[in-house]
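User: My collaborator and I are trying to settle a disagreement about how two of our proteins should look. Neither of us wants to argue from intuition anymore, so we agreed to look at predicted structures for both before our next call. Could you fold the first one, then the second, and keep them clearly separated?

Assistant: That sounds like a sensible way to settle it. I'll keep them separate. The first protein:
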Amino acid sequence: MTTQPSTGTVAARREDRTRRDTARRDVATPRIPLSRRWRRVILVGHVVAGGAWIGIDVIVAVLVLTGWFADDTALRSLAYRALAEFVVSPMLVSGLLCLVTGLLLGLGTKWGLVRYWWVLVKLVLNLALCTLIVVVLQPAWTTSRTTARTCSPVRRRAAACPDCSSRQRCP
């Protein structure tokens, strides 16, 4: 024989549940009300921007490893030139797009910007990484672009870059 816990009448339990649900709704009210359609559009944009950012990071890793470990100087030069020419802008655009859509989703949905710790961590990481792209990567890739141009195979044959005449890495 099982006994029901005596927590009060059914009406009292229903009132407690209603009070809890109302309190949750008050806390989770979005600051920018988004319609269902706009929320979905922004969410798709956020996921696409995040996926693009991850894909660009994989491409960066492949090009950097190719630049470090390739035996052929022309291949190393091409890898660094590709990094300098084609990676900084798309990475920055996808990072900023991810940041903007994340802010819109945080302000327009129940998740909020600082309601949950993991949303705040994502926001801080995104801001830090976008700042690092502008402050660290862009000047470094400008330097690598210069190195790639001076150590190109054409100039190496003309002996304009003595470091590339050997099989050592370019400075």
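The second protein, kept apart from the first:
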Amino acid sequence: MIGGAFWNTSLLATSGSHEPPQCEANLIISAAAAHSAVPFYLQPTLGGGDIHNENWLRSYTNYRFRAPNMVAYGVTYERRLIDPFGFFIFAQWGKVGLDVGELDFDRLKRSIGFGIALRLGGRAVAEFSFAWGGGEGTQTYSTGNTNNAIGFGARAAGTVGLRGVFLEEGLGQSSRTPKTAIAG
């Protein structure tokens, strides 16, 4: 039965230092009660961005890999160019699995890339990145979060009429047609 009782737990670990490079690890484990399954629309995803503005495996299209369990790792090095603009490079690895035992280091999907960031009040408001890896072509990816502009001034964010998270993917299209996958 799809739906029914299930639970989902998430663990996000980041390096405590604000000095580059920044390291992240994200683990999501879902478990359904007997004779139930986690609905697909509540399963974690890898590839591009997701509804929570998590940008894992940017070289793949949004929501490319989906399963009840997910693990992802990332390293980012960012430098300020001219305030408020910064340049960053990143590497990401991850995979999804139907069972927790499938979340090992074997056959991890990967993405590498670079981009620019606009920061206000020390927090990223907008990013534009170019990523490749995994054999599915390249992706350009832009994302922004005007909630981060609050550190710059709530009134400033409100006067331009931007609120919440915005996301755009596919400014440059992959060289291959998108595929659907349940488990990576």
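Some points you might bring to the call about the second protein. Residues 154-159 form the longest helix (6 residues). DSSP finds one helix and ten strands in the chain.
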